[in-house]
Amino acid sequence: MKSLLQAVGLKKTYRQGTRQVEVLRGVDFSVAEGEAVVIVGPSGSGKSTLLHLLGGLDWPTGGKVRFQGKDLYALGDGELARTRNLSFGFVFQSYHLVPELTALENVALAGWIRNGAGPSRSALKAAQEILEQVGLRHRLSHRPTELSGGEQQRVALARALVNRPPLLFCDEPTGNLDSETGSEILKLLAGLHREQGTTFVIVTHEPVLQRIASRVLLLKDGRL
Ligand SMILES: Nc1ncnc2c1ncn2[C@@H]1O[C@H](COP(=O)(O)OP(=O)(O)O)[C@@H](O)[C@H]1O
Ligand SMILES: [Mg+2]
To answer: Ligand 1 centre and the CA of 22: distance in Å?
Structure first.
């Protein structure tokens, strides 16, 4: 299988005043196209830090991240932002929806940003299709406060997927949900993986997410 994303000797140290917190101490890791990799580890082990670095959202203290062979952190800011926008989807524990926008507009917004063209009928159509896929046909014109936590996370998932990114990053995607709603999201992720071959990197401390993994890795003492 072709390697899509690679981390080589990845390091991250946070500075707090005079204190240094060494979170990642040389992470080596590779994800092939079509894999669903789940990274587990206790709270505070550096899972979010690692995910942000893999997704081009932060700067490493050392090491490299390669996406389709390109060194992410050697790209200029514009090129890095473009790669993130075109190739990565993100789902976080908090849904980060725009409160003033409806479910449909929240999802369509990702398409508008991608095309740099503002509201378009085709972006709305794509948003509606993906919202239907995640079971929200009846919630298109609801605003986030009018949706349950599980529904908001499904909108966030639809937004992450509307541009059909080859790689989806999830940080504790079921962390704010009760176990029943969490397993609905899990089923959706499993379905996407099976039917569309979406590549996933999921970090979580919830063992249940391991069920959809093709590989489970443990982050401990700054290493995988
Ligand atoms: N911006 C920051 N500044 C200083 N320390 C941080 C920062 N972000 C995270 N940390 C520390 O790094 C460690 C790992 O955090 P994090 O990656 O959020 O872990 P996890 O997601 O596994 O719970 C924690 O000890 C946390 O306090
Ligand atoms: Mg975290």
So the answer is: 10
**Which residue of 23, 38, 40 sits with most ligand 1 atoms within 8 Å of its CB, as the best mutation to test the pocket?**
23
Query: For ligand 1, which residues put their CB under 6 angstroms from it?
Result: 14, 16, 21, 23, 41, 43-49
- The count of structural domains within the chain is 1
Residue 190 lies in a domain: yes
Q: For residue 15, what are the contacts with CB-CB under 8 A and spacing of at least 6?
A: 21
- We report the CATH number of the domain holding residue 137 as 3.40.50.300
CA 56/CA 61 separation, integer angstroms = 13
Q: Which domain holds residue 167?
A: 3-218
Closest ligand to C-alpha of residue 43 is: 1
Q: Tell me the pTM.
A: 0.93
pLDDT digits (tens, 9 = 90+) for 201-218: 999 988 888 888 989 999
C-alpha 195: how far from chain center: 18
pLDDT at 1 over 80: no
150 within some domain:
yes
The ligand 1 atom at the shortest distance from the C-alpha of residue 43 is 23
